Amino acid sequence: MALKARALYNFQSENKEEISIQENEELVIFSENSLDGWLQGQNSRGETGLFPASYVEILRSRSGSNYTDYSGSPAGSPGHDSFYTTPPNPGISYQGSFEDDDDDDWDDWDDACTVVEEPRSAPGTNGHPSPSLQYPAAYGHHQHAGYHPKPALERQDSMSSSKRGSVVGRNLNRFSCFVRSGVEAFILGDVPLMSKIAEAYCIEMGSKGPQWRANPHPFICSVEDPTKQTKFKGIKSYISYKLTPSNINSPVYRRYKHFDWLYNRLLHKFTVISVPHLPEKQATGRFEEDFIEKRKRRLILWMDHMTSHPVLSQYEGFQHFLCCRDEKQWKLGKRRAEKDEMVGASFLLTIQIPTEHQDLQDVEDRVDAFKAFSKKMDDSVLQLTNVASELVRKHVGGFRKEFQKLGNAFQAISHSFHMDPPYSSDALNNAISHTGKTYETVGEMFAEQPKNDLFLMLDTLSLYQGLLSNFPDIIHLQKGAFAKVKESQRMSDEGRMDQEEADGIRKRCRVVGFALQAEMNHFHERRVADFKRMMQSYLKQQIVFYQRVSQQLEKTLRMYDNL
């Protein structure tokens, strides 16, 4: 039952699951049962989402008291130590093996150990699961920058802080990707160091700033021959794809669910990398030719981005996916990837950064510029997607129909000229009739043309919509790291933190900053190459198309020359 409430303090949302509320704002609460200290409701602007339970009071019309106190809620009380388990997040839709799909059963592929067995915590950056299950100790204190506590809560917070000594406050907002991804724990030094780190990813200084060190063994991989196969005596059907990496030149065959498994491993591992999204699933029509061809085109683009990324291309799980042909070894490698410890925040321990000094303010300014750029690019990509999609609709429907109408009209003229034989000219009648057929042919050419140009454009735009959608969360990680550096330096200046500890936070922030800048540089490098190729392909296909149309019209025109 919905209840009315009033906001006691201001709260600024940090992601799409939350909503901002203002002091004294009237709210609607969907349920007064808090979810780990959070309530779900609607603000006065009609926005629906989550906000801290301790920031509101419920207004009761038939009760002696109109106030419900949530200050004891774990998330609602900064400084209240509690073990944190991420609650279910209704705002997140899972891509990948969490979907129910006939193509995603695991009965023929190592049932004993699958990605489905992982805890279904709310994903963070790029869809990463919450790190709270990995680092429970890192989530004891939560403090929000916009928090305005009542005196009792303030006293509780200061008492708790005195127990721990010089500790930078942690975020109150447990739904923040900065917390969920584990980057906060990494910045504060709470991610345990491994005794032996087998993998390392290096960042170098290039002409345009930090960049990932290139893969020393670059390769490409083709995606070909989507083939329908069956099992259980034809009861179950699926599509397999032939993958041929250039470094071994030996094909393997993978189903979409295998791509899906790999994609989830990538999301789980690479915290600060924009992992390209897989082509979308489809509940019906999975074996229709157009859908199979569309998925193949988009898997080719996805694979091209994977093999070109200096970090993703070297990932052991990706190499296993591309190269393993033995069933036993395949299952062993799959389990090894699922037990990988260097995931999420621990992945940051594998990054080696340059020794060059970077002013944090300069880095922040560069990140802000990229944030503005990516937002504008996202808007323009969506705009072009809508325009191109509408143009496809017109090609297939409107344009074809209009040319068919024109062709039929010319045919009618030709037929009418046959009505009075003494004055009829067979040559002219035939020419006009042929003109009508020519325009019908042109209409069919328009209907078929999107397969040659607009579909390829839409494939590229779809890929970049996915890549761009990853960056807000990744940038938020950097912003959270900056905030911790500033807070730690202020505490050091006030004598509440050792300078050595503050320097450690700054050093770990540099890792996140270098990684984000390297990812930004890689994105720009790929963007230039991809959009150059997309525009060249589109214009070339347009030229070829209109040349074919012109040839049809010129051939028809010559029929009138000798009348």
From TrEMBL:
GO cellular component: cytoplasmic vesicle membrane; plasma membrane
Residue ranges with Polar residues bias: 123-133
Keyword Cytoplasm: no
SUPFAM superfamilies for the chain: PX domain, SH3-domain
Region Disordered, annotated ranges: 69-100, 117-165
Stored PROSITE patterns: PX (PS50195), SH3 (PS50002)
Stated name of the protein: SNX33 protein
Organism of provenance: Circaetus pectoralis
Annotated gene: Snx33
